[in-house]
Specification:
mainly alpha, 12 helices
């Protein structure tokens, strides 16, 4: 009876989340903010500040800092966005010589005329891409759902974050009181492990992504790449999505470099070198120091989680894919340990030495 109850409850929760994924973003954002800021509120509470006042102070300062940063950088970002929209045709035109040579090489190798009219193809692609961007921007601005989502992020997320942060300890205590006495210690242990993993990823990854965005912007500005600040912000934001985001940002930067300098191996090499240097700093210094081994996810599992999250829940799924995968990994490791202990199997079996 208990088994089927939990299976049914899990199925209902999953179905509910899937059906409400369209309005889930502001609530997930509020939950993430409350979770992220709970340690700060706890410290204020330890200093005899009432929990409600502590939550209000922390949430207010947090969102004021975000608004301040956006307002400070918005004129620069706005000018670069306007400039990049004007320079896109020149960027695509910069690809013309390389594309001509590549297609001509394919034509010579395979004996087929695959070159075609590159100029008209690029011009058509540029016009169509700009038209689609303008149409998409207009559609987003006119869409009631999009406006609702933007307003909900701006208005609902802070309210959700405040109430969750104010009542965080009460909610945790209430859930803890529901645990059955027989398995309460196991559940608490799993919850602590999940909290460690999520804290290691959420708090650490946000700091790592911010530092990486700053390093990208400084590095690409130093090598003379146009729109370096905008590309750095893009790279930092995309770095929240492991592997895929960083590679996408690097590809955009290289494409912008081709449009600016053509196929100049020195300049493009400098752009790529900035990406590689930042990745080395991230892999050898930032992630070990700020995240460490607390997440402990295999890269293949991370990639699968990102693509699966995007397929199931779209953009929201991509954002929560790695934290969800980390929590699932904690549960999977626990059940593997239970299985190994039940059957008396050693937890680390060394592979047999190969015979010579």
């Amino acid at each position: 009876m208990n088994k089927w109850f939990w299976i049914g409850t899990t199925a209902v929760v999953i179905l509910f989340v899937y059906l409400t994924k369209g309005v889930m973003l502001p609530f997930l954002a509020g939950l993430a903010v409350a979770y992220f800021l709970d340690p700060i509120a706890d410290r204020l509470e330890a200093l005899k500040v009432p929990r409600g006042a502590a939550a209000a102070m922390v949430i207010t300062v947090f969102f004021l800092v975000i608004v301040g940063v956006v307002l400070a950088f918005w004129p620069i970002l706005q000018s670069q966005i306007a400039a990049i929209s004007q320079s896109l045709p020149q960027t695509l035109a910069g690809l013309r010589p390389w594309l001509n040579d590549t297609l001509q090489t394919l034509s010579d190798r395979f004996g087929q005329d695959v070159a075609g009219d590159v100029d008209s193809m690029l011009a058509s692609f540029s016009d169509e891409l700009l038209a689609r961007v303008k149409h998409g921007a207009g559609t987003v601005l006119k869409s009631g759902l999009a406006v609702f989502n933007i307003l909900s992020l701006m208005l609902i997320s802070p309210v959700v974050a405040f109430y969750l942060l104010r009542d965080w300890d009460l909610l945790v205590a209430k859930v803890d009181s529901w645990l059955p006495p027989s398995g309460s210690e196991v559940v608490r242990g799993l919850a602590r492990n999940v909290d460690t993993v999520l804290a290691g990823f959420v708090r650490g990854q946000l700091i790592v992504s911010t530092i990486m965005g700053i390093l990208y912007a400084i590095g690409w500005s130093a090598v003379g790449l146009d729109f370096a600040i905008l590309l750095g912000v893009l790279a930092g934001v995309m770095s929240i999505v492991p592997f895929v985001g960083a590679l996408f940002a690097a590809a955009v930067a290289v494409a912008m470099g081709i449009g600016q300098w053509g196929m100049d191996p020195v300049q493009l090499g400098l752009v790529a070198s900035v990406f590689l240097v930042v990745q080395v700093i991230e892999g050898s210094l930032l992630t070990p120091k700020l995240i460490g081994d607390r997440v402990g996810l295999h890269p293949v599992w991370v990639l699968f989680a990102v693509f699966a999250g995007g397929e199931v829940m779209g953009f929201v799924g991509v954002l929560i894919a790695v934290p969800a995968a980390a929590a699932i990994a904690v549960l999977v490791r626990y059940w593997i340990d239970v299985y190994l202990e039940h059957h008396g199997i050693p937890d680390a079996v060394q592979p047999a030495a190969s015979k010579e």
